[in-house]
Amino acid sequence: MADTGVAETLLRWVEKADVCLLPAVQVISAELRSSKHWELTGEGTEIAEQGSHEARVFSSIPLEGLAQSELMKLSFGKIGFSKAMSNKWIRVDKAHEGGPRIFRTVENIEDQVREKLLLVQRGNSCELEEKEKNELKKRRLLSEVTVKSYWITKGSSFSTTVTKQETELTPEMIATGSWKEKTFKPYNFEAMGVALDCGHLHPLMKVRTQFRQIFLEMGFTEMPTNNFIESSFWNFDSLFQPQQHPARDQHDTFFLSDPALAHEFPQDYLQRVKRVHSEGGFGSQGYKYDWKTEEAQKNILRTHTTAVSARMLYKVAQQEKFTPVKYFSIDRVFRNETLDATHLAEFHQIEGVVADYGLTLGDLMGVLHQFFTKLGITKLRFKPAYNPYTEPSMEVFSYHEGLKKWVEVGNSGVFRPEMLLPMGLPEDVSVIAWGLSLERPTMIKYGINNIRELVGHKVNLQMVYDSPICRLDS
Amino acid sequence: MLRTLMPRGKPGHEELSAGDDVGDLSFIQPVSNGWTSQSGVKGTVSGSYNRLVGSFFIVCWRGLAANMPTVGVRRELLFKALGRAYTDEEFDELCFEYGLELDEITSEKEIISREQGDSKAAGASDVILYKIDVPANRYDLLCLEGLARGLQVFKNKLEAPRYRRVRPVSGESQKLIITKETEAVRRHAVAAVLRNITFTQERYDSFIELQEKLHQNVCRKRSLVAIGTHDLDTISGPFTYTAKPPGDISFKPLNQSQEFTATQLMSLYKTDSHLRHYLHIIEDKPVYPVIYDSNGIVLSMPPIINGDHSKITLKTRNVFIECTATDLNKAKIVLDMMVTMFSEYCLQPFTVEEAEVVYPDGKACIYPELAYRKEKLSSEFINRKVGINESTEKIAQLLTRMCLRSRATGVGDEIEVEIPPTRSDVIHACDIMEDAAIAYGFNNIIRTTPHTYTVANQFPLNKLTELLRQDLAAAGFTEALNFALCSQEDIADKLGKKISETRAVHISNPKTAEFQVARTTLLPGLLKTIAANRKMPLPLKLFEISDVVLKDETKDVGARNSRRFCAIYYNKSPGFEVIHGLLDRTMQLLEVKSARGDGYHIQAADDNTFFPGRCAEIRASRSPPPRCNQPL
Description:
Chain A: This is phenylalanine--tRNA ligase. By secondary structure, chain A is an alpha+beta fold.
């Protein structure tokens, strides 16, 4: 570094680098000191020398007056004229022969503007009031100047040789070992990292994966639920849900116009279903109504995945020898309902089913306890409820520590014999089952208010990008 | 099939060149409702958490939540009937145990103020009301009388009353004669008489309210059964239940000052907020049902309206109840409910005077049936099904507390259970078993682990889907999740296709166009996702693996699901190579080689959905078959 311009270099240095960083380097320490003062502008300087425009107008008008057109030819004419007019130093005689003519109205004038500017020029600006200075600033005759200066002293590790700090480690530095001698510019650890370009899984699907995992951990086999279209027979009748049940209403269920009807049914099973509905049997009084095949044939969008459970249990019943099964499914179901912030026409149902000899209500509670423990819910209690296809039926409640109350988390029950026996399952086989929705726990997990921001095309992609991994038990 | 995406849209957008912003998705209908603002969401997360938890998971299983009737009772009257006062918490607990739900604690004033504003509520009563949700099959709990009786018996404070059918003191029972004409519209009718009943305002209100609750529930909005109640002292039997053309029926209906013909009534009630919902039941029938007394006075025109002449008042002492129906079994149940609930207020409590119903073929039946049915089962059965170990006597006591009077017969562990007419929900031994479990207390049952040994299997298609999704996200694409239902336009017009070519299944009763069909392709959903997320930084790379639905005559229901994979790349420049790269990566993951013949390749194709010359179809040979079972 040459001797000349040290101050200049230092200044550049101080200005460029964060002043706050320099003390850390401890080569020099710099203290910022700034001051303000008033200066005349170019126009202000001219006025200080030659007088204000209005004063110059006044002095250029002889006693006999001056034609306005002549005045306007002067450089200060226009501005000076209006100011002098408003100061009432001059007057215009518009009716004058040979065009408007200007006359003095006073004998002497006092050029205050010039006086004030001269004060500033002499460095006595403090004698002027703030208001006066601001007025002159508005007329662009004065300007306020800030002078920044640094008070520079030697730092604790002052040195006359300055090494440039490295920003990044390079392969060459490592190869040559030069990194040992170099100093590195410190990182700013306050800043965020770079946003990565990555793909994301949908939060609802992440929760689905976890529920799937839980069932698999518990030894449950996944049911093939890839059939959204179902006949009323499998969706309702096989489940001993009577044909006049409100759930089978047009207001609750989507019916199909094309293909409107299902055609193939296991005929002898269908006859047994018909009998148990209309006359009873299998120990039941039945519903005692006129059961119609046409009603059972009506195709719908399935209203629950329990329709698939029914198909699967029927299949199990057709085996030569019954073997215990544990089934689960998580898939879409459809309801023709009024939509709101928490209800859509389609949602995902989670369902678990266990079929074995001699299962008890206590077993159902035990399985539910295990299942919900895996979701991080350990405090459960059960409320008697009603489902057309389960008896007993239980609503599952969990204690919510935040709300200090019991909230419903699912529904469960033991399938009715009127459903199981016509399928051909052995009489001493019990089937326990439970269901809940996938959307609600997901909305709670991810703090989402409106279901439309979670499911469907109105999804908030930013939410998808930002959603954390899903650990249900923590 | 996976297609490389260059949306073209409808004619008019065809002049788009390769350099144009392919993101011009203006052909997609703008989403009707705006975004809920980001800040709004963030600002309410903590609040919403609590609100949501209140109703936690949606209950999927059908039957309960949506159809659970709610009964409103005055708290003081309920406690009076229960013989003691409860704190709200104690009563809530009792409800929980019994399978009821104390849904809301409110008052008439509060309800009116909430629904119509404070000003309207000024004069209303602020007596505390309990709104109690009742299981949909327990018709015997739909009024204060039944609720109190059930709970009293449950708490061992009352023995379940025995309901008796009696012959009239005069010896001559009321007669309802059904004529043949009713067969065309509503063929069944049953009847009974409540003799020497004493109404108070509260009892009267409850009596009317129970009819309404029954109408809404078991009667399926009067379509299966309609109830008519009449002041017997204003009319004289025998009564005739017949059906006539609407022009021939004329009477003064309830709360009207003049006579109307049935035809006039139907148009009068078109605008009635309550009655208009029932008109459709008979509207298009050639004849309407009507009940006359022996003097030609109209009792009712079921299921629409009663006559004004025979209306019951607080002073009514003798009530004639008729139920007309399309379902006889339900009519009997409804009649039994009406008389068992309110015979409590008769001079001889829990007795009901019989009525004779004569059918067109001359056959006569006596109603109400008030049938008590006896079932025998073993205590071992109940212990085994519930998972408890109680003595036969104890189980008989448990059942008796549920209004199912039971006793140990002494033959082994046999229990004889008597099912009263109020418990039409008990149709199988499993219903009895459940009642024993409720009386025992669900939460007193020891939770056990079944010994069922099974090995878990994943559904192969889902397993493949799960694995592939992970790797597609790893490839930088973000998963979208769209509805399986959509409008016809979405899968046809907007993609430049004809609906007839789509093999789509059609919904017959959609409430809006959003639910006209099941999607046949995943593409519209992804395009709509982009349209709704145009504020996001580019590029957008989205994918979805999900089911579409196609008609398929080889299936029992005539349709099947098909698992699809669709991906979309949205940027200022088209980026065909990006989507092509994703295809190559996908095939690599699926172990399908890039080769003609034994593998996959893409070739130019013409498709109305895509920009000309910017569409390729993927062809894969099946030998050796890729490991996935479904075409992708």
